[in-house]
Amino acid sequence: MRKPFLSLVAVLGLAACATEPMLGPPPPPPSGPVAVSIPANIAASLSDPSRPAADMVRDRDRHPGEVLAFAGVRPGAKVADLIPGGGYFTRIFSKAVGPRGRVYAYVPDELTKAAKREPTVNAIARDPAYPNVTVILNTLPNFATPEKLDLVFTAQNYHDMHDKFMGPANLSVVNRQVFKALKPGGVYLVIDHVADAGSGLRDTETLHRIDPAVVKAEVTAAGFIFEGESRVLRNSNDPRKANVYDAGIRGKTDQFVYKFRKPSTAR
């Protein structure tokens, strides 16, 4: 059975532009996410036939093209997917960075022991379609990679590192280790579910959400510069009171996408 090329359709839709002259007053600005240009390497990674059909269906809600474009993922880049889960982004990174690039799927040992099975992403690393993927098993906060990186990426996981089953991990050390692993000018991209402003770490274990201000404060304390936010995953209709796994909100939560950069003068 051929896999649906939903992601390619979405990318082509974003890239399309009107050629007819506009008559009358300009239309009001769109209420949803603003369309962005998707680089060719990222567009190709989304339409890659090796991707599971279920992953392509999820693209509608996760907007991976816009997210990777915001992160600045280029061919030849060295990327760490920190806590990759089932490898949704790992596969996309693999094709986006290409044969000259490298993707390190970084799995904390704490998660492997809790699941009592090997990481799901191991199957991706063994798949000949993804030869540039390497799995790293290590305990947090001992984040380290064999080479300097262009990007460290973590999606919907930062709050987990504050949870009891992860230790909790010492995030001040984790973030400093991420800083150390990056090349000068490298990017640290953090995506997570939004908790109420001022709630701090209150909801990390119960609702699996985190106050974005906590993330910004912790990451910049490690030496990073906050470069900006993509609003592609924001959802003002999320009341932020429900567990992110609840059927009524799952896949539709209000999420922040924060981009931090290691100063180009840092070593």
Automatic annotation (TrEMBL):
<dbReference type="InterPro" id="IPR016980">
    <property type="entry name" value="S-AdoMet-dep_MeTrfase_Alr7345"/>
</dbReference>
<dbReference type="GO" id="GO:0032259">
    <property type="term" value="P:methylation"/>
</dbReference>
<keyword id="KW-0808">Transferase</keyword>
<keyword id="KW-0489">Methyltransferase</keyword>
<dbReference type="GO" id="GO:0008168">
    <property type="term" value="F:methyltransferase activity"/>
</dbReference>
<keyword id="KW-0732">Signal</keyword>
<dbReference type="InterPro" id="IPR029063">
    <property type="entry name" value="SAM-dependent_MTases_sf"/>
</dbReference>
<protein>
    <submittedName>
        <fullName>Class I SAM-dependent methyltransferase</fullName>
    </submittedName>
</protein>
<feature type="signal peptide">
    <location>
        <begin position="1"/>
        <end position="18"/>
    </location>
</feature>
